[in-house]
Amino acid sequence: MRKKESKENSRVQGIVTRAVGSSFNVLVDSRTVACFFRGRYRIKKEGLPASTSGERIFPVVGDRVMVTLSDEASGVIEEILPRETKLSRPEVELHRGEQVLVANVQQMIIVASVQLPLLKTRAIDRFLIAAEKGELQPIICVNKIDLASDEKYKEDLVPYPDLGYKVIFTSVPEKRGLEDFKACLKDKISVLAGHSGVGKSSLLNVIQKGLKLVTREVSTYSLKGKHVTSYVELYPLDFGGFVADTPGLRELGLWDVDKQDLAWYFPEFEDCLGKCKFNDCLHLTEPGCAVKEKLQSGKIHETRYDSYKRILETL
Asked: What is the CATH number of the domain that holds 139?
């Protein structure tokens, strides 16, 4: 009886802060516990035990887990608790389904850069769709504004505030917008996402002392960023909250979004949906398309519609 009580007392809840291969760091109260995963458990479905029901999953950063402690510094992940939110993409290497990058975060900070690499609003649009799909609140951070010779880049970003998205502008060398960036993260659980080289790690280094994340200059030959962060890690912030830094993504594949659903992820299309002549309208060349009519009236930005068409081609 005493052995059973001892085992139950050693079972604690924590948050996965780092996942590399089969090794996991789990934050339990204020200490980090090194863990491995038994691998035979499933995510719980309400009212049923996790080991006998639900979807098979693997722990990711942000997961709330139950851990059986071996000692103060090590343990075994016995159970993954239900996820409230997630950032996903199609599994890249094996193409077997969904790859969850991070779970249970509240918001996604979509980091883009004005130059090196060049600002691409279509990439922003893909991240906005992924945020909406994963039930994350998106915020757009446009970094490296010190590299711009003028403010013409802001013309490309006009649609986003009009649609209700928050946009902030930052420069690490000139220390511009850093307080805005910090305020976005304060007391929230956030994930930074964006292409390689846009400056995610540099931004985190400057607002959180002691992080010392590795950064690397963008190639002047290809004008593309190089991958430095190779895994996701969740960091506590001294001023409140947690933030996850993700590996730079050259292209974010959209998980579980099909052609018929895509239009619903463009807020400016919503009041048109269901009003087209054809129920299966993809808003391309079909006659009687309400979206195209709104576009021609100037109430949908051309760049956003072009982004819709290009993303549609990839689904």
From this structure: 3.40.50.300
Average pLDDT of 23-51? 74
Please report where in the chains the tokens 């099909």 appear, as a residue. Answer: 258
Q: How far apart are CA 119 and CA 69, in angstroms?
A: 47
In a domain? residue 252: no
Q: Can you give the pTM of this predicted structure?
A: 0.87
Q: Which domain holds residue 221?
A: 87-245
Answer yes or no: do 97 and 187 share one domain.
yes
pLDDT tens sequence across 177-192: 999 999 999 999 999 9
